[in-house]
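REQUEST ID: PR-0412
SUBMITTED BY: lab tech R.K.
PRIORITY: routine
TASK: structure prediction, single protein chain
INPUT:
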Amino acid sequence: MAQAIRNEGSKVNSNINVTPMVDVMLVLLIIFMVITPMLQNKVVIDMAEVVNPVAMPDADKDDAIVVAITKSGDVFLGQNKTSIDVLGSQVREKMADNPGAKTIFIRADARAEYLQVENAIDAVRTAGVEDVGLLTQKREGNPAGGA
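STATUS: complete
OUTPUT:
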């Protein structure tokens, strides 16, 4: 009687199929590319560039109170658009909600009108804020201003 030998090992495919893994990775990449710009919680502004900026690490904290002024004169308290007339009362409310905050940070566009920035600082000062920080960027390239 002959014995039947089963050769199951020859049917096993030991190659890894990477196509499903690549598909999943591409989907994740696309998801992260779409979501990442939405995570930015600041108003887009081209800040003034200076040679020796003062570091203000407190401005990057989540509970920092930031007033932004765009080149068109729009005023934002955090992400919310507001007006100069009510800025003082809104800052006062935010200060009451966050008693640890003592400094208000101003992010003004480099092309914003000086009067708008001055009015925003005055509104913040009338709300009882003593410390106002003006946020700037470090100038890249030639410090003398040339290209």
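NOTES: The two ends are 93 Å apart (CA to CA).
REVIEWED BY: pending
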